[in-house]
Amino acid sequence: MSDVAERVKKIVVEHLGVEEAKVTDTASFIDDLGADSLDTVELVMAFEEEFGIEIPDDAAEKILTVKDAIDFISSKQG
Amino acid sequence: MFDLSGKTALVTGASGGIGAAIARTLHGKGAKVALHGTKVEALAALAAELGENAVVVPANLSDPAQVEDLFKKAEAALGGTVDILVNNAGLTRDGLILRMKDEDWDSVINVNLTAGFRLARAAVKGMMKRRWGRIIGITSVVGVTGNPGQVNYAASKAGMIGMSKALAQEVATRGITVNAVAPGMIATAMTDVLNDAQKEAMNSRIPAGRLGTPDDIAAAVLYLASNEAAYVTGQTLHVNGGMAMI
């Protein structure tokens, strides 16, 4: 598992208070991990802080699963 | 009860009668306060009176860039956080609708409503992270009852109540409450200009038989800002001596 993936999953586990095993790549924040819309905004804020990047609103809207987040952040980090 | 030690507060319009009373009251209960206004001298005098834990952050709320900047300046001056936001700044541009210019409408909506929205948006971010926050809007009895000659002002104040209710629902799970305080007729520079006959006519409509004081309003704000009011959100607390029971 890449460094980005590990850090993303750690944030998700901490923020949503879910078991690590549930935070699979394909897990959807809302459908599988019990997040509400405010949680997803908070997750994006947490990613921005952790990785020192800015995630624009139109990109944030497309981050629905753990993998979406990992892919977006990896692409920003080149 | 109502201890605010260790909390920080940004009070807009703190150079006015009600804003200054709110700032004094929150400060008196231990909060570190950032005083916003446009009259820099009045703010500096208030800060000097309060002594420690009071900082001055002037800005023109009609200018979106200055509003964003104001929040950043307030955070920096307060040591990184704004726990309590009091959207108190407001202005009037009264006139019957047939004589009301677009500028009169726009300036009132911009300062009374839109600036409060922008500040709340900026404040919510940090409050969500800390799982604690208080956003308090100073609205007005006329936002609920209406008042001839004030379509712009009444709309801005009613807008603030709606905004508070919507925002209260968005952030309730994060330990943030959003409420409004609706003053009735309060003795300030705005009412000093009335003559005795006008004041008497006004008092006759108030069951309490007197105008309210800025401290009456500040006490309501203190309550809503406190830990004790954690379960009160989306409400409008009317402080009007009984002139409108709504």
Describe this structure in words.
The complex is a heterodimer of chains A (78) and B (246). The mean pLDDT of chain A is 93. The two termini of chain A are 17 Å apart. Chain A is built from four helices and no strands. Chain A has a single domain, classed as ACP-like (Non-ribosomal Peptide Synthetase Peptidyl Carrier Protein, Chain A), CATH 1.10.1200. Chain A is an all-alpha fold and 78 residues long. Chain A is 58% helix and 0% strand. In chain A, α1 packs across α2 and α1 crosses α4. Chain B has a single domain, classed as Rossmann fold. In chain B, 47% of the residues lie in helices and 13% in strands. Chain B contains nine helices and seven strands; from the N terminus they run βαβαβαβαβααβαααβ. Chain B has a seven-stranded parallel β-sheet with strand order 3-2-1-4-5-6-7, with helices on both faces. In chain B, α1 links the parallel β1 and β2. Chain B is globular. The chains are: A mainly alpha (78), B alpha/beta (246). The interface between A and B is small, with 4 and 7 residues.
CATH superfamily of chain B: NAD(P)-binding Rossmann-like Domain
- The CATH homologous superfamily of chain A is termed ACP-like
The CATH topology of chain B:
Rossmann fold
User: What can be said about the biggest beta sheet of chain A?
Assistant: none
Distance, first to last CA of chain B? 27 Å
User: What overall geometry of chain B do the principal axes of the alpha carbons give?
Assistant: globular
CATH topology of chain A: Non-ribosomal Peptide Synthetase Peptidyl Carrier Protein, Chain A
- Total number of helices of chain A: 4
Percent strand of chain A equals under 5%
- Class by alpha and beta content of chain A: mainly alpha
What's the N-to-C terminus distance of chain A? Answer: 17 Å
Uncertain segments of chain A: none
> What structural class should be given to the helix and strand makeup of chain B?
alpha/beta
Q: Unreliable runs of chain B, pLDDT <50, ≥5 residues?
A: none
Order of strands side by side in the largest beta sheet of chain B? 3-2-1-4-5-6-7
Largest interface: A-B, 4 and 7 residues
